[in-house]
Each structure stands twice: as C-alpha cells, then as structure tokens.
Amino acid sequence: MAESSAEASSKAAPKAAPRSLPKGARRTTPSVETLAALDHERLIGLVLDETRRNPAFRKLVSAALAARQGPDAVARIVDRRLAALEGARGYIDWQKRRAFALDLDTTVSVILNELRPLDAEAALERLLRFLGGADDVFARVDDGTGTVQGVYDRAAEAAVEIGAGLPPATAARFASALLPRVLADPTGALTVLLRGLIGRLDPAALAPLDAEVTGLAAETGARAGRRETETLRRLQRRLLLRLRQDIAERRGDIDAFIALEVEAVPGSPDRVDIATRLLGADRPAEALDWLRRKTPQPLTRADLIAGLDETAMERERAVLEIQALDALGRGAEAQDLRWRGFAQRLDADMLRAYLAKLPDFEDDEALRRAFAVVEAFPDPHRALGFLVRWPDLDRAARLVTGRPEIWAGERYTILAPAAEALAQAHPLAATILYRALLDDILARGRSQAYTHGAAYLLELDLIAERADLGGLKPDPSEYREGLKRRHGRKYGFWDLVEGG
C-alpha cells in the first residue's frame, strides 16, 4: 500500500533536536529549563493526566484557559465557587479539612493569579466577598490546625496589597466603602483588612476617611440602644477609635494617637506603647513622664499571645525608661536602673549594659559585686541559670555542689541545659543535676518525659565511666540499683533504657 503524504512527509522531515540544558542543570528536576526541553505534546499529556487526578489543579488549569477570554470569564468561574461556598451548610470534620482548605486556597489563587492581572478591582471585589463569608466557614469547619485560617490570612494580605496599589483617591474611597460592612461585624475578617489597608494608604488622601470615621464615632457614642444591641455598639465605638488611631499613626500625628488612646482606655492607656512612639519622635521627656505615671497597666490579649507576663512588661518599661534617661543626659539615673534591673531579676543584659557604661578599670570591681548578688539571690535556680548563661561555669559548679540537696527536677528548663554545660569540666555538678532531673521524672511517673529520663541515665553512665566523682553518695552502681528498687515497675522507662 502506498504511503500517505502525511506519513511520507513525517519520514522525510528530520525530528527537531531536543533543547540542550544549561551546563550543570539537573536533568530530572522540574525547572524552567528542563520543562522547556520536553516535547510540547508530552507536557500536554502530563497536564491532562494531572487534571484527571487532581481537582484543585483542574480548577487552576480551567481558570488559566478562561483568562485567555478575558476577566469576565475568570470572574464567572470565581463567582460560581463563591456562590457554592456561601450556600453550603455541611460540617467539615478533620478528615475533610485538608481537601477543603486546598479548595479554598485554589479559589484565592485563581483570583490572584488569573483575575488580578486582568482586572485588579474585580479581583479585589471577589476577595472581599470571600473574606465576608469567613464567619460562616469557621462555624462549620474543624480548624484545629489553623490551616483554613491561613487561607483567609493570605486573602486578607492580598486584598491589602491590591487596595494599596490603587490610585490614592480610589484606595481611600475603597476603604470608606468598607466601613458599613466592618461596623456590621466589628470582629470579622474585614476589620483586619481595613486596618491593614489604612496603614498602607497615602497619608494625603486620608482626610475624607478620617472625617467619616470621626462622624461615625460621634454618632455611635451618642446613640443609645436596647440591651441586646449595647454590646455591638460598644464594639463599634472601640473599633472606630482604633481606626482613628490607625489614621493618626499613618499621618505621623503622635499627639492625636495619644489622645485617642486615652479616650479608648481612660483608666489605663498603654503607657509602654505611647512612650515607645514618643522616644521614636525624639521626645524623651514626655516618654519618661508617661512611663512613670501610676496608672494600671493590665495585660492585653496581644500581650498574652506574645507570651508576655508582668515581669516581662516591667522589664520593657525599664528599658524604655533607661533610653529616655540616656537621651536626657541623666546617665547616673540610667545606671541605677540598670543595676536595679539586674539585681531584682538577675538580668544578664542589664548587667552587661551597666558594665559597658562604666569608666575604665571599674568594671572588675562591679563584676565582683554582681557575682556576690547572684550567689546571695533567694532563688538558687535563677542564680544557676544566670551563671550558666553568663557564662561562669566554675561558679555554677560550686553553687551546685555546695547545696546538692536543693535542686528541683521540675525546674528542668534551667537544670537540663546547666547539666549539659557542666558535664565535661564539672562532672560532679552535672551528676547532681542529672540525678535531680531523673528522680523527678520517675517520682512523678511522668511517662511523657521517659525519653528524656532515659537520656539522663545514659549521660550519668557516661560521666561515671570517664570521671572520678570524688566519693559521691550513692555511687553510680548503688544509684542505679536504688532506681530499680523504687521504680522497677515503670516498664515504659526501663524499656527505653534497655533499648538504648
């Protein structure tokens, strides 16, 4: 049979040589270079195979194809998904959470990667619609890992970026248009968006928004409502004050910011935050005045999330007070505060700063006084932690061996790193600490810490093999026998020990 013209031409035409890769490129790692070297039909086949296996990838490819038709085609795809999301009522348990979060993230990706390049304002509208449904989504999803929250955080950050990229007047109008929706749900996702957006707007374009927020704040403050609406009114008033603060901060108007802080929290404004801003504006005398005012300074939710406690907040105030005193040329007072901060809390950074400010040849005597304070400190565990971190391991070892019976294994955050630091040069002190740690774990039956306990016993064995422990009682073999007698039935621990 005669060959067809297509077959003949196919045989006659030489195949195109594959593209060469850059020198040193790995031929099996997907990259721009390696994928460009693949035949187009092979790439298409891979994409089609993945669209059949992966629903999220199929949506991304469909959106990319729709983008060739223009923004309206992409917007229709997004709108269908948002409508389905808004109409859904089923509960998403932990087993379905991953796929659900991936689907949400795919929707955000389509908005950002396909719609935004074609029509930024349309993309922004869809992000707002997506964020506006956050409460309904969280009401029906088990988001213990924070995965779904992460998707909404990504959408909010993107919305802030797009909104801030609009022409200044347009961006300000967009922020103003958010106000009614934000006031309807003061604790919702759109509140985070609006406050983030204000921090990115052109300060010169903020006047209309400031006037509107100020008017709404006055109206909300004057309006009295029924008991069931009073909580919402309080939330609205607080939010509007914070928005006015955001605007003042964006404009660099510190005095307006402070006045609003006093209005928002009349009895206990955030003195540390106010002082930080005043110091940044080179107004140290006013900062010092605020720091020394005797108004209550309760821990906020943000402080708790950041892990701050009363001690940490007091230290932060002291650091700012020292900065203010230094700026005012009152160095002796600043030094007194540094020494006091060290002596009260064994604050190593305060001591280093104190020593650095001393004249030449006075630091040795000051350091001797400091170590006397450490050795007399009421909490020996704090003293040990200070000496290990400073470091002065000789003093730390003397502290441990001088009072071998006082070390509490429950203070493991101090004892464990101290034992590790002392193990080489001071094996007796390290042994005392490792025993305290291990005894506490076994006495309390803390099975979740048995792995650590087995590691401590191994360290004790290694120390005993290489070091003379100077008549320590009980000796290592007697100590292990005592452990067996007292805790022989803690099989989970001994299994770990015998298993290495």
Total DSSP helices: 28
Structural class: mainly alpha
Residue share in β-strands: under 5%
Tell me the span between the first and last alpha carbons. Answer: 77 Å
* Radius of gyration based on Cα positions: 33 Å
Low-confidence parts: 1-18
Helix proportion range: over 70%
| H/E element sequence | HHHHHHHHHHHHHHHHHHHHHHHHHHHH
Task: Choose one word for the global shape.
Answer: extended
Largest sheet: none
Task: Let me know the number of strands.
Answer: 0
**Mean pLDDT across all residues, rounded?**
89
Task: Describe, in plain words, how this protein is organized in 3D.
The protein has 500 residues and is an all-alpha fold. Among the domains are: 37-264; 382-498, no CATH class. The protein has 28 helices and no strands. The protein has helices at 5-12, 32-36, 40-53, 55-67, 71-87, 94-115, 120-132, 134-138, 147-165, 168-184, 189-198, 207-222, 227-251, 254-264, 271-280, 284-291, 301-305, 310-327, 331-345, 348-356, 363-375, 380-389, 393-402, 412-422, 427-444, 450-466, 476-487, 491-498. Helix 6 packs antiparallel against helix 7 (120-132). The longest helix is centred in the middle third of the chain and has 25 residues, at 227-251. It is extended and about 85 Å long. 28% of the residues are buried. The model is unreliable at 1-18 (pLDDT under 50).
